[in-house]
Amino acid sequence: MSVLNLKAISKSYQDGEEERTILDKLDLQVSAGEFVAILGPSGSGKSTLLSIAGALLSADSGEIYLDGEKVGSQKEWTKLRREKIGFIFQNHQLLPFLTIAEQLDMIGKFSKRFSKTEVKQRQEALLAELGIADCAKKYPKQLSGGQKQRAAIARAFLNQPSLILADEPTASLDASRGRQVAELIRQEVKERQTAVVMVTHDERILDVVDTVYRLENAKLVKVNN
């Protein structure tokens, strides 16, 4: 089943006196349980593509479908992100003044998809699966870089989103921890049948993903993987 379907997405920016096209009628389809990686040099448009897919930025033209439904006006975006999309960032973006459990509770409260009891159950299950059950009552400053990124993964998956968008999730980690994080994302993808799109420079982890694309000349080119 197709979770994310981008059709003929285009995006241009003004660069001095010139207009620069970074996405040119780009198509992408991602299925449930599929882990997709997108490679490309800095400035190629990877993060822009992720922002458009995540209802954070408007495309100049094209259509976006999530779970078979067309993504509509910006008025719907906040609800869509809250209920259907999870984000994993390069620098985890955990709130320093809340424990990991409190941060996950807050995400569950905003979503309103699950009861308080269900949120707690999902929280405990995710932290256990990710190997950081003992970190629930700790603050981010008490965690290692790898533990923080695992907590960010738990946050992204908590509300059982259809789509996870990961922006360089291993960039701030060493090779061993980076691979561990990629493998944990894959584990959750397969377990929960979520679709994941990850933009990355880290070619050492590409054997963990299902499908690899390169963003070249404003187009996505599939790479044999």
UniProtKB/TrEMBL annotation:
<keyword id="KW-0029">Amino-acid transport</keyword>
<dbReference type="GO" id="GO:0005524">
    <property type="term" value="F:ATP binding"/>
</dbReference>
<keyword id="KW-0813">Transport</keyword>
<dbReference type="InterPro" id="IPR017871">
    <property type="entry name" value="ABC_transporter-like_CS"/>
</dbReference>
<dbReference type="InterPro" id="IPR027417">
    <property type="entry name" value="P-loop_NTPase"/>
</dbReference>
<dbReference type="InterPro" id="IPR017911">
    <property type="entry name" value="MacB-like_ATP-bd"/>
</dbReference>
<dbReference type="Pfam" id="PF00005">
    <property type="entry name" value="ABC_tran"/>
</dbReference>
<protein>
    <submittedName>
        <fullName>Putative ABC transport system ATP-binding protein</fullName>
    </submittedName>
</protein>
<dbReference type="GO" id="GO:0022857">
    <property type="term" value="F:transmembrane transporter activity"/>
</dbReference>
<feature type="domain" description="ABC transporter">
    <location>
        <begin position="4"/>
        <end position="223"/>
    </location>
</feature>
<dbReference type="InterPro" id="IPR003593">
    <property type="entry name" value="AAA+_ATPase"/>
</dbReference>
<dbReference type="InterPro" id="IPR003439">
    <property type="entry name" value="ABC_transporter-like_ATP-bd"/>
</dbReference>
<comment type="similarity">
    <text>Belongs to the ABC transporter superfamily.</text>
</comment>
<keyword id="KW-0547">Nucleotide-binding</keyword>
<dbReference type="GO" id="GO:0006865">
    <property type="term" value="P:amino acid transport"/>
</dbReference>
<dbReference type="GO" id="GO:0016887">
    <property type="term" value="F:ATP hydrolysis activity"/>
</dbReference>
<keyword id="KW-0067">ATP-binding</keyword>
<dbReference type="GO" id="GO:0098796">
    <property type="term" value="C:membrane protein complex"/>
</dbReference>
